[in-house]
Automatic annotation (TrEMBL), chains A, B:
Gene of this entry: trpS
Organism field: Thermoproteota archaeon
Keyword Protein biosynthesis: yes
SUPFAM superfamilies: Nucleotidylyl transferase
CDD domains, sorted: TrpRS_core
Compartments (UniProt record): Cytoplasm
Protein name: Tryptophan--tRNA ligase
Function: Catalyzes the attachment of tryptophan to tRNA(Trp).
Biological process according to GO: tryptophanyl-tRNA aminoacylation
Keywords: Aminoacyl-tRNA synthetase, ATP-binding, Cytoplasm, Ligase, Nucleotide-binding, Protein biosynthesis
Organism placement in taxonomy: Archaea, Thermoproteota
Amino acid sequence: MHITPWEVRGEVNYDEIIKEFGVELITDDIIERLKKYTNNIHVLLRRKIFFAHREFEDWLDSFEKGIKVILYTGRGPSGYTHLGHLIPWIFTKYLQDVFKADLYFQVTDDEKFLIHPEMSMEDIENFTNDNILDIIAVGFDPERTKIFTNLNYKEIYRIAVRIARHITFSTAKATFGFTESSNIGIIFFPAMQAAPCFLYQILEGKDAHVLIPCAIDQEPYWRISRDVAPKLRFRKPAGIYSKFIPGLGANGKMSTSHPETCIFLKDSPEDVKRKIWNAFTGGQPTLKEQKEKGGNPNICVVYWYLYFYFEDDDKKVEEIYNECIIGKRICGECKELLTKKIIEFLIEHQKRREKAKDMVEKYLLKD
Amino acid sequence: MHITPWEVRGEVNYDEIIKEFGVELITDDIIERLKKYTNNIHVLLRRKIFFAHREFEDWLDSFEKGIKVILYTGRGPSGYTHLGHLIPWIFTKYLQDVFKADLYFQVTDDEKFLIHPEMSMEDIENFTNDNILDIIAVGFDPERTKIFTNLNYKEIYRIAVRIARHITFSTAKATFGFTESSNIGIIFFPAMQAAPCFLYQILEGKDAHVLIPCAIDQEPYWRISRDVAPKLRFRKPAGIYSKFIPGLGANGKMSTSHPETCIFLKDSPEDVKRKIWNAFTGGQPTLKEQKEKGGNPNICVVYWYLYFYFEDDDKKVEEIYNECIIGKRICGECKELLTKKIIEFLIEHQKRREKAKDMVEKYLLKD
């Protein structure tokens, strides 16, 4: 297993990741503590899709002490947004709502240009503009949310040089696996990604405690931020980390270059029907066998999708699992349920995305 | 001998540099050709202080063909400006006047912050604001000159990522001597310095031929720009290169950390008198010996200063040389002459610098 922000090779073993990255599990105690702030424990937390953290409890302490709490997350605009991207943003919005936190949302157009030699600057700009609509459509509080792109908001480079002065090539190489043939832009990029950890503090000249909700593969960036923070006299950012959101192929493979394995946010109901119909399941080859032997929800992508987000009802999801195992439930039922849930979700999202077109200026952070 | 933009170690052998860098000498033929465009061949050319070039003749060809010609030079704001910095700018202004060329003037505040761990961002900003006044005081055509700093003009980072995508760590290491302990900001910086080579072309969407007047130690940067130019479908920049401007110490040593070896542009007449009085000369220890044996102008810093810029009259400078050698001239005379010339020069510069305070907005390039 090999994890950098640019590639995940091999099967993912989350126990190993926890150990390798030195992060901690989200415990039931933490979830209990959250009930002090909200009656609604988000499905992504209940199901432990957001499964790990670093100093999340310290961030909660800061919140309780009245220290300014900030959220920071991001998006690399190298394609159209799909469900896998959206899930962590939905969770970020949840945190924003619970903690009334300011959110900085970084679009790493520079990074995507630097790692995709086949893409033009225009390609990246098109995806950037497109993706920003999806970000806004999540429904972040417009008064508390600032979206920016690294190529269009110069403060990020200004902060990045302060960070970069403290990061040697040797450290960056060890953390991100750079080689002699890495380009000098991507070698510098970790400083650009670290910069928003200190943006509020620098813009406002005030203390703040930043929490970064993101997929676990982004965690190496925050180690850099955490190393540098004390040197710049800022507080170290905390993190809360999700598992990888599965695709629709066998073993949950998902890839933008194989569009049939992803549900894009622009997909039509017909697209969704077809993709879910063709998704990899844990069912038996025939109805007869399914009824005799039962299916295997543990390897079933359709079940996973219901579990990780689309079936909010804990009892219902347990029922589905149990019925599948004993052969009482057939794949068609699950596919139909999931298709319905996703189509509903996308219709709502697409409506909000249309409205987002008039709200871009409101959200964009300007120099 | 070891030359990178950040250090010159050992004695400088210009023949070796020519060979090592693969640049060409400024020949008398080139100087003859310039007489087509101007009756005034600048003293820095006549004396071959600007001694080498790369494709300067091609740039002249472009000028003759009516292709847009552009000048690009820069300043690293890590201290107050001294005469050694100003000399190439004066020559750049000369080229601007002769060829009616647009000039982009880059202030590399990012670079100086990245290589000076002892300096704060505020230090760099103070020197930046101060140095810009000296740049403007040179008298560049305000209609054709745009000054910008890398931390304040975001287009540079935008262009730099396009360049950086084509430069591997291995290439940057070979060219600039980076090591494992170089910081990731300075590793990226060559792309920032290369960016203005393509600024006009990108801003205007038109072809242009860029000429870079600078000290020879900056030449490695333009090799990078030249390698990348065809990949971005731009013309390769040409260069015209000066020798290092000597300081006032023995062997022409000059260092901002030893202020007595530099004439700063803020120096008072008293400062100039004292510094020139204490400058290293080729004179004999006593007046008697000077008259008997003659002096050695070849190692005399005072003579160098008269030669490289301050005595414009070719006959006069030859006379000084000849009189010194045969002991007819004593050091006091040369020191007095140089002191007078420098004080006159500084008084004029300082007047223009005062006026520059109201002209900053006119010159600054904005996003």
